Amino acid sequence: MTDAEHLFTPRDFLRRAISRFTQAGLFFGHGATSALDEAAYLILEGLHLPIDQLEPFLDARLLPDERERLSALIEARVETRKPAAYLLHKAYVGGAPFYVDERVLVPRSFIGELLRSEALVGGEGALIADPDDISSALDLCTGSGCLALLAAGVFPHARIDATDLSPDALEVARRNVGDYGLADRVTLHEGDLFAPVKGRRYDLIITNPPYVAESVMADLPAEFGHEPVMALAGGVDGFDIVRRILAQAGAHLEPGGGLICEIGEDRDILEAEYPDLPFLWLDTEESVGEVFYLPAEAFTPARPENARPEKSRRSRPAEATGAASASRSTERRRR
Fold this sequence. Notes:
- The chain has helices at residues 10-24, 35-46, 64-80, 84-88, 110-115, 146-154, 167-179, 214-217, 240-248, 267-273; strands at 91-93, 96-98, 136-140, 159-164, 186-190, 202-207, 253-262, 280-281, 291-295.
- It is an alpha/beta fold.
- The strands form 2 sheets. The protein has a 7-stranded mixed β-sheet, with helices on one face. Strands 1-2 form a two-stranded antiparallel sheet.
- The longest helix is centred in the first third of the chain and has 17 residues, at 64-80.
């Protein structure tokens, strides 16, 4: 007999999934941080129910085909070690759904949270006082396109460019851009970092590049083995791509603009290597010191008096700490 013959309600499947996931020693960190969260997500999404409303449906009687589907999803999660988002072809960032498959990382960037934070945009003393001031933005290493699309929502008058080296990833991003009806504002470019947008400058650059160190790559849980290696691996210490971004970002920022970059937990490496850069670390509810902001002026010498005046949208002092910090996420590397 299969589980579907013995389990009748979402509550039954929730208990069974947690037991199976715990027994199998699964890793959680692709949108969920515990067996309970992963099981709830799999059940709600598998039944096409609101993703944030488990309680009202816990004791609903399921139809035979629904029971078979949940049973198959639970077993697939255990047997394949694929993250639930790949099994369901859906991931959520900032409450917004995105199509995903193995051609892209499961989106889980802290930048998605920051874009919705008043500490970054629109709040008192925010880095970006008025979202209307952003008329152009660039998303490097866009993957599924989720950050570019979130940026398009936060900055309603901005045109967004998004680049990625992987044509497969851009196919997924193109689907998401189409799903959100934003093809007139979000333009995808295939190529290496800034190469496809040579000569263009932006009010804001956001990037969640590959930053997993070589030693960490060797020890990643099996779930990460389903993700594209090129989107994870960042060289010996994890910062090969980050260094290239820092070397080129200044040439692509407008005066008064800025770079937001996620780099993981090893900020000490960057701070030691770039002692003259005024890194402003933007904390989130799940991270401390894993995302930095640098103003355009950090990359260039002082401008002459007749240079284009700096826009006045930036108001937060350099010593600010970003959004309120809380306990660090249990996940070692996020993207």
